[in-house]
Specification:
about 100 residues, alpha/beta, Oxidized Rhodanese, domain 1, about 40% helix
């Protein structure tokens, strides 16, 4: 599975917006802190997979990177996605390394 660090994501976002962020956390977690993008909770992934693009890099986000890794495994093995990146360390890594003012939980 391909991963992207918080710093690499920050650099990539500063150069281009041709990337999709998909957050697989629960809505209550997304309300605490988020990077924007599309909220598709894990339990909705199968039903809403059509919202995940295949034509641009897609960064999957969760709290620490475990649920997003599970989502990537499902999407690649079951649905043939080949353009997915896991945010290493999740939103927690972003909050500690990139934006210390972001709420942590």
């Amino acid at each position: 599975m391909d991963e992207i660090t918080a710093q690499e994501l920050k650099d990539r976002l500063s150069r281009s917006n041709n990337i999709q962020l998909v957050d697989v956390r629960e809505p209550s977690e997304f309300e605490i802190c988020n990077l924007g993008g599309d909220l598709i909770p894990m339990e909705e992934l199968q039903k809403q997979a059509g919202r995940i693009r295949r034509d641009v890099p897609v960064v999957m986000v969760c709290h620490h990177g475990f649920r997003s890794a599970q989502a990537i495994n499902y999407l690649t093995q079951r649905l043939g996605y080949e353009n997915l990146l896991n945010l290493k360390g999740g939103i927690h890594a972003w909050a500690t390394q990139i934006d210390p003012s972001m709420a942590k939980y």
